[in-house]
Amino acid sequence: MPKNLRSFLVRCWQLGDDQVRIEIEHIQSGDKVLVESIDAALDWICAQPHAARDAAMDLSDPDTT
Questions:
Q1: C-alpha closest to that of 44 among 35, 53, 52
Q2: In whole angstroms, how large is the CA radius of gyration of the chain?
Q3: Over pLDDT 90: what percentage of the chain?
Q4: How many degrees, rounded to 5, is the angle at CA 57 between CA 54 and CA 59?
Q5: Cα–Cα distance, 42 to 36 (Å, whole number)
Q6: Are 24 and 37 in contact (CB under 8 A)?
Q7: With contact defined as beta carbons under 8 Å apart, do 53 and 43 qualify?
Q8: Is the backbone of residue 10 left (phi > 0), alpha (psi -120 to 50) or beta?
């Protein structure tokens, strides 16, 4: 089975008046985004590519299967 690992670093700030700021970094690509809700954070995380799915795989290499 192909490896399907994505890693994220999430930082969250409570600003008061029920406002939050959430910064998410996709570790594999280095892409970052700043959002204002947990729902927006999860939407962004789910939209990030799966490295194993999107990369060309060498099926003879046991580390990619």
A1: 35
A2: 16
A3: 52
A4: 150
A5: 11
A6: no
A7: no
A8: beta
Mean pLDDT rounded to a whole number for the chain: 80
pTM above 0.85, yes or no: no
Q: What is the pLDDT of residues 40-56, one digit of tens each?
A: 999 999 998 775 444 44
Beta bridge partners of residue 11, listed in sequence order: 23
Residue type, 46: C
CA distance 30 to 21: 19
Tell me the three-class secondary structure of the chain, residue by residue: CCCCCCCEEEEEEEEECCEEEEEEEECCCCCEEEECCHHHHHHHHHHCCCHHHHCCCCCCCHHHC
What distance in Å separates the CA atoms of residue 61 and residue 6, rounded to the nearest whole number? 20
